[in-house]
Amino acid sequence: MSYALQELLQDLLKAFGETFSMVGISITLALVAGIPLGLLLYVSDRGLFMENRFINVVGGLAINVIRSVPFVILLVLVLPLTQWLVGSTIGPGAAAVPLSIASIAFYARLVHASLCEVDRGVIEAATATGATPLQIICHVLLLESLPGLLRGFTVTAVSLIGYSAMAGIVGGGGVGDLAIRFGYYRYETKIMIATVVLLIILVQLIQSIGDVLARRANKS
Amino acid sequence: MSELNSMIELNDIHVCFPSAKGVIEAVNGVSLKIEREEVFGIVGASGGGKSTLVRTINLLERPTSGTVRIDGVDVTAFRGAELRGLRLRTGMIFQQFNLIQTKSIFANVAFALKVAGTNKADIDQRVSELLSLVGLSDKADAYPAMLSGGQKQRVGIARALANSPQVLLCDEPTSALDPESTAAILELLKDINRKLGITVVIITHEMAVVKTICDRVAVMKAGEIVETGSVYEVFAQPRNEYTRQLVARTLNLELPPRLLEGQQGRILKLHYRGERAEEPVISAAVQQFNVQINILHGRIEYIGEHPLGVLIVALDGHAERVEEAVAYISSHTADVEVIQ
Ligand SMILES: Nc1ncnc2c1ncn2[C@@H]1O[C@H](COP(=O)(O)OP(=O)(O)OP(=O)(O)O)[C@@H](O)[C@H]1O
Ligand SMILES: [Mg+2]
């Protein structure tokens, strides 16, 4: 083995640290921006309390446009924005920009889909009790769709790990970068396998936690 | 406001929905007065516009034209806080209960109070009161999915009553329930109407429900009200053909065809209306004209305290005597139909 175990561990640790920071930033933004965006898309739909055709169509279109651009292309497309926001196009911080954009759009769509599953009758009952739009959002929409929101969040987090590997290739660092550098360019198959195994464990862990939380939230 | 006002007054309500095939007139010029503390039924076939009409009362559906007055106040143009204030004063329950699945029974009822800005301590106390009123004190911590249909509807009722409304709107509250739960829920609604003096508007497609709890009823068909009256009037003397069919089906007044087979002589259908004067007339006819009488079918229903029913009898004997007997009975009773 041309590569000492200690070095391997250090590289892995650094790579995972970078991945976590990329994924952490973008998943947080997905949560902070994706939920309001999905909500806006939902409540502006026909027959709901903030019916607004313009917002509905434009919002839906924007999300679809972002989601239909292949991630690798999005990475390149937003480079000027990344440069302007982060001051660099290299490193996990820079990679977090396209990742965030993609995951906000992705999660917003999943949020919207979960909200569409909420029984309209329940919304109507809340309206009939005299609830304000905000009360309906907090006590009915978000609560009733919570299991779906949690599942969507899990799916988003898992997809983000995959995307972050791609981001790594164009200078983001992280696990994907490590695997490519050692496994592909240097033929260190063992290292590649080690990173893959770790990734599988990580994804499995996220999925399990997500499943448990979603099951807890589901009362029906 | 004033005792002179009707509780609910709908004036020439139209509700139109745009659709691919043009405009659907779901409600087509309905005017209606619902009085204080009565139980008012709205019956009719599916798609007749009953739900749409009732939803205009709390403006879940805004009428295309016409006015809605609640307690004398024109609320048609209410929006925002004013509209929410109106909704606090009008509770509503639904066929599918529409409870928040992810909230406990306690939280479902508490939500309605929170909406009204009630403070925490008062909410706790009021929710216990309401749950005990509907007989669900032991289910406070359960979730809707753990309850039976009848229990879910009780939660719906508790929620609708939370802010002490003047009006309770019920959209087919028992259509998803079995006969026992239906009876229990209807009794609870009647109780609430009597004890709390709440005006109840109830949509149903079952005349049986109307018969059980309503004071007055409107029959709705294709967006229009074809008949309104006290339940007894409508059952005893339906004026509209559609109402007649509805009533006949409920009272099961149709004679099985096989009963008519091989019957000699005349067959009469006598309607009971409150007083039961028909029997002496029949026995008098039997004695006077020397005909045989055979009771084929009889049924009496009680609507409130008043009996309502039919008697189908066959008269046989000497042909001329039978005709005389028929004429005699017809002239001495209010409503006789010669079937054969
Ligand atoms: N939001 C809507 N958009 C379009 N059409 C509607 C809407 N709501 C109701 N309708 C139409 O209006 C008509 C009356 O419907 P409504 O639900 O009021 O009838 P209903 O008497 O309550 O029927 P049911 O007994 O089946 O509940 C139907 O033709 C229905 O398709
Ligand atoms: Mg209906």
Describe the structure using short key phrases:
heterodimer; A: 220 residues; mainly alpha; MetI-like fold; 10 helices; elongated; B: 340 residues; alpha/beta; six-stranded mixed β-sheet; four-stranded antiparallel β-sheet; 12 helices; 37% helix; binds adenosine-5'-triphosphate; binds magnesium ion
Please render the helix and strand layout as text.
The complex is a heterodimer of chains A (220) and B (340).
Chain A: H1 5-43, H2 53-68, H3 71-77, H4 79-86, H5 92-116, H6 120-129, H7 133-144, H8 146-172, H9 174-185, H10 189-217
Chain B: E1 8-19, E2 22-34, E3 39-44, H1 50-57, E4 65-70, E5 73-74, H2 80-88, E6 90-94, H3 105-115, H4 120-133, H5 149-161, E7 167-171, H6 179-196, E8 199-204, H7 207-213, E9 216-221, E10 224-230, H8 231-236, H9 241-251, H10 257-260, E11 266-273, H11 278-289, E12 292-303, E13 306-316, H12 319-332, E14 336-338
Parallel strand pairs in B: 3-8, 3-9, 6-7, 7-8
Antiparallel strand pairs in B: 1-2, 1-4, 4-5, 9-10, 11-13, 11-14, 12-13
Helix pairs in contact in B: 3-4, 3-5, 4-5, 5-6, 11-12
The structure holds adenosine-5'-triphosphate (ATP) and magnesium ion (MG).
Overview of this structure, please?
The complex is a heterodimer of chains A (220) and B (340). By secondary structure, chain A is an all-alpha fold. Chain A has a single domain (3-219), classed as Orthogonal Bundle (MetI-like fold), CATH 1.10.3720. Chain A contains ten helices and no strands. Chain A has helices at residues 5-43, 53-68, 71-77, 79-86, 92-116, 120-129, 133-144, 146-172, 174-185, 189-217. In chain A, helix 8 packs across helix 9. The longest helix of chain A is centred in the N-terminal third of the chain and has 39 residues, at 5-43. The termini of chain A are far apart. With 340 residues, chain B is an alpha/beta fold. Chain B contains twelve helices and 14 strands. Chain B has helices at 50-57, 80-88, 105-115, 120-133, 149-161, 179-196, 207-213, 231-236, 241-251, 257-260, 278-289, 319-332, and strands spanning 8-19, 22-34, 39-44, 65-70, 73-74, 90-94, 167-171, 199-204, 216-221, 224-230, 266-273, 292-303, 306-316, 336-338. In chain B, the strands form three sheets. A six-stranded mixed sheet of chain B has the order 6-7-8-3-9-10, with helices on both faces. In chain B, helix 11 packs antiparallel against helix 12. The longest helix of chain B is centred in the middle third of the chain and has 18 residues, at 179-196. Chain B is elongated and about 80 Å long. The N and C termini of chain B lie far apart (57 Å). The chains are: A mainly alpha (220), B alpha/beta (340). Chain A binds chain B through residues 119, 121-122, 124-132, 135, 139-140, 143-144, 146, 217-220, and chain B through 58, 60, 84-88, 90-92, 94, 96, 98-103, 111-112, 114-116, 143-145, 156, 159-160, 162-163, 169. The structure holds adenosine-5'-triphosphate and magnesium ion. Magnesium ion is lined by residues 50-51, 171 of chain B.
